Amino acid sequence: MQHIQTVLAKSGAYSRRETGRMIEQKRVTVNGVTCTHSTEVLPEDEILIDGKPLPEPAERIYLAFHKPAGITCTAQQKVEGNLVDYLNFNTRIFAVGRLDKASTGLLLLTNDGSIVNPLMKEAADKEKEYLVETKRPVSDEMIAKMRAGGLLIKGKAASPAFAEKTGEYTFRIILKQGLNRQIRRMCSAFGNHVTSLKRVRISHIHLGSLPAGEWRHLNLEEIHLLKVGVNDQN
């Protein structure tokens, strides 16, 4: 048996976040019974959303996108500057993780909802590398604390990270965590302010020379390495 959210996400039509909302709204039934977040299903069970069968699985798409500043990582088209309207892609895709509106750099996009949550868990052990520029000089104390971990980000302790100064006002940092506005909040804790934040790598996938606003398909090796361990988590 599989959890209902896993089955819906594997259909490729919905992200896990969306499936959670649909379950809360009582739009999903299994064999005629409204399901809950704890519902498990068998392959032969009839799953309906709004009384309709699941759509046929779409061809899997995996993209690397160079997000420019000013774009919001959301599929909600009521939000000005949303990702969907900007990309105007020919099929429905969503982001694996996020970059805040002011940040730039590598963003992974897919229509494979089954990989999104597992990849964003710290246990997935996926490194994310950033280049950061600050308003004030980067202090040795701030770098040391980022390396040691323990800074509180909205009540949760930041894990130890690789960090190094690359200039008077710049540093490089590699995270495995994904706390909300983590780098900006860590800098703020030392009275500094991020003026530029760019993600240049997620695990083995590099931004490289991809121009801002452009995307490319991941190659087969990149896709395979991205999914290593995901099936075990599902």
From TrEMBL:
Protein name per the record: Pseudouridine synthase
Q: What family does the database annotate?
A: Belongs to the pseudouridine synthase RsuA family.
Alphabetically ordered keywords of this record:
Isomerase, RNA-binding
What is the E.C. number? 5.4.99.-
* Name of the top EC class for this enzyme: isomerase
**GO BP, one example?**
enzyme-directed rRNA pseudouridine synthesis
Respond yes or no to whether keyword RNA-binding is given for this record: yes
Task: Report the superkingdom from the record.
Answer: Bacteria
Any one GO molecular-function label of the UniProt entry: RNA binding
Q: Using the record's annotation, list all stretches that form the RNA-binding S4 domain.
A: 2-59
The species is Jeotgalibacillus malaysiensis
Q: Does the keyword Hydrolase apply?
A: no
